[in-house]
Write a structure and sequence with these properties.
Blueprint: H1 3-8, E1 22-25, E2 28-31, E3 34-35, E4 40-49, E5 52-64, E6 70-76, H2 82-89, H3 101-119, E7 122-125, E8 129-132, E9 138-142, E10 145-148, E11 155-157, H4 159-162, E12 164-166, H5 174-187, H6 192-202, H7 205-210, E13 218-222, H8 229-236, E14 240-242, E15 251-252, H9 258-265, E16 269-278, H10 284-302, E17 306-310, E18 316-320, E19 322-329, H11 336-339, E20 342-346, H12 358-373, H13 377-390, H14 397-419, H15 426-454, H16 463-472, E21 478-479, E22 490-493, E23 496-499, H17 501-508, H18 518-527, E24 545-547, E25 550-556, H19 557-563
Parallel strand pairs: 4-7, 7-11, 13-19, 13-20, 15-16, 16-19, 21-22
Antiparallel strand pairs: 1-2, 2-3, 4-5, 5-6, 8-9, 9-10, 12-14, 17-18, 22-23, 23-25, 24-25
Helix pairs in contact: 5-6, 5-12, 6-14, 13-14, 14-15, 16-19
């Protein structure tokens, strides 16, 4: 809130000033005839919730000390005694009669309500991100800046939120920035485009969760050291700076406990938080603990669920994730439950090229996109709803929903670029959207394949153990040589089980070893020392024994029993 806007607001204290026996005179507050403070109050502005002009959230004051010294103070109604907040924020202020504090609190609340009824409220934003005002218009709080149409209503942003600023460049031509961003996305569809799409989507997370999206994907950038994992996320996702230090905001280290990381993540809303560098370790237990910690973080950050934790004063605190969580690391996720909740970007070569000011370009493009999409936000949410309804059910429902969300937000961004005339033709727009969807299909399809593989049953034993169990349970049709009729028939001669490789492969289809090819089966039995090496025979083949013009694999039962290992 600028001082010019504040000065234009009416002086609410021209209302009756004797309410609750409180009077102001000569830079002091009086209770009856008694001086109770060394300060007076020059102005009161009621601050209400964005969605409800009748819900008082805070009070803005101009506190006047001796002379003409003013201090601006915001009193939060959720933080207890109002007078105590004045004293904490302005150390020079003194309350000379402690018992008068409750009367002064009541006086301030009454004056705020009277002012709200006469001149209307200002809006108080407690949180970063997307908000829908009481008049149904959408606005976006981007740190110290509120984007969107608030009309003539004054706005105030909580100090913890306004301590951040979007890292956009006011001197950079907006259309030039958008064009550079589009070109970077076009040249790096599997990295820059996916990371920036995640940033766009994360800016809308709080509202998406309200609209029934029970899960929200995380971004995981995997690659070896010095491949540019952190650089990619920093340039395309971490678009806020801390104003006090000019450092990149929302960048966390994974060395904290799981509870500590979750507590920090819960403090952000509708932006990307990075948990950086989940590195490999020579210590297996350290690496295992790191994976376990990240798995717990994935479940918290992906699910639309609350966590209740005990506070130091005996109560409980609710934690909800309303931000996009990005992680970098060298360790691949293999569990199906993890893979279904993430978008995995794999860096196979070091990132090279690109502009040095790529982060400012991304932030400038992001800001312009927000300003463009806010007036039509309801229309785009309706398009998303229709896309979800029209989608055919598939096996990996979470990954399908991730594909829909990212495709939707990328289509929205490319539509924005087309209306800015950065994208010149309908053909280019259609091609860009198609390529984006294909890229996402490839990335998420690879994750679906990994999930399918991880869903395969774990072997109870080695290959020899399964063959031995099949023999003991009469799952092979064993006949004499004279009664051989079918290709699936087996022969037992001199303690050696003879069967075709096709018969053995058919048997293994009902076991966890079902993916082995005929060559793999022979190699495995050779490794388990059931059959001799293929090079030990002249014919250089696994199935050496010939019975009635057919080739049979010879499996000595004594060697099979010796080689069989039960994993359980």
């Amino acid at each position: 809130m600028t001082s010019e806007v504040i000065d234009q607001m009416p002086n609410q204290l021209e209302l009756e000033q004797s309410c609750f026996g409180i009077r102001m005179m000569e830079n002091c507050l009086f209770f009856g005839e008694r001086v109770i403070s060394n300060f007076s109050i020059e102005q009161i502005t009621p601050l209400c919730a964005p969605e409800d002009p009748y819900t008082l959230e805070a009070i803005y004051l101009r506190v006047c000390l001796s002379g003409s010294v003013f201090r601006e103070v915001i009193l939060d109604l959720r933080k207890g005694a109002l007078v105590r907040q004045i004293l904490n924020q302005v150390p020079a202020c003194r309350l000379l009669v402690n018992s008068a504090g409750i009367y002064l609190d009541a006086f301030l609340l009454d004056m705020a309500e009277r002012t709200r009824a006469q001149v209307g409220p200002a809006i108080y934003f407690r949180e970063n991100g997307l908000h829908q005002l009481w008049n149904n218009k959408w606005v976006m709080v981007c740190g110290d800046e509120v984007l969107g149409d608030c009309g003539n209503t004054a706005v105030f942003v909580q100090s913890t939120v306004s301590s951040l600023r979007l890292a956009w460049d006011s001197e950079l031509c907006v259309d030039e920035a958008i064009e550079c961003q589009v070109r970077a996305m076009e040249a790096n569809t599997k990295t820059v485009q996916v990371a920036f799409a995640f940033t766009l989507l994360s800016a809308l997370r709080s509202e998406l969760m309200k609209r029934g999206f029970s899960t929200f994907p995380l971004l995981y950038v995997q690659g070896v050291q010095n491949f540019g994992k952190t650089v990619l996320v920093t340039q395309q996702c971490l678009l806020y700076d801390r104003k006090d230090s000019a450092k990149v905001a929302a960048k966390l280290e994974p060395i904290s406990s799981e509870k500590g990381i979750i507590a920090e993540i819960s403090a952000y809303r509708d932006q990307v938080v990075l948990v950086d560098d989940m590195a490999k370790s020579s210590n297996i237990s350290v690496e295992r603990d790191c994976i376990k910690k990240m798995a717990g973080l994935i479940r918290y950050a992906a699910n639309d669920s609350e966590r209740r934790i005990a506070t130091s004063v005996g109560g409980t605190k609710v934690q909800v994730c309303e931000t996009g969580v990005a992680m970098t690391g060298e360790i691949p996720f293999t569990a199906a439950s993890d893979l279904s909740r993430i978008v995995q970007v794999l860096l196979t070569v070091p990132l090279r090229g690109g502009r040095e000011d790529a982060r400012r370009v991304a932030a400038t493009s992001f800001r312009a996109w927000i300003q463009w999409v806010l007036p039509q936000m309801d229309d785009w949410f309706e398009k998303l709803r229709c896309a979800c309804e029209q989608a055919e059910p598939v096996g990996q429902a979470r990954l399908q929903k991730t594909h829909i969300l990212l495709s939707w937000v990328l289509t929205c961004f490319y539509q924005f670029a087309r209306e800015r005339k950065v994208i010149a033709s309908e053909r280019y727009f259609t091609s860009a959207v198609r390529e984006a969807k294909n890229t996402l299909s490839g990335l998420l399809g690879a994750q679906a394949d990994l999930i399918e593989k991880s869903a395969q049953p774990v072997p109870k034993g080695n290959l020899s153990w399964y063959i031995l169990q099949g023999f003991r349970k009469n799952e092979f049709r064993v006949v004499s040589r004279k009664k051989l009729k079918h290709d699936s028939d087996c022969v037992l001669e001199d303690g050696v089980l003879c069967m075709t490789l096709s018969t053995l492969k058919d048997f293994l289809r009902a076991t966890p070893w079902n993916e082995l090819s005929k060559n793999d089966i022979g190699d495995r039995l050779e490794q388990e020392k059931v059959i001799p090496p293929i090079g030990a025979c002249k014919e250089k083949r696994r199935a050496k024994k010939r019975i009635y013009s057919k080739r049979y694999l010879e499996i000595p039962l004594d060697k099979l029993k010796k080689a069989a290992i039960n994993y359980e």
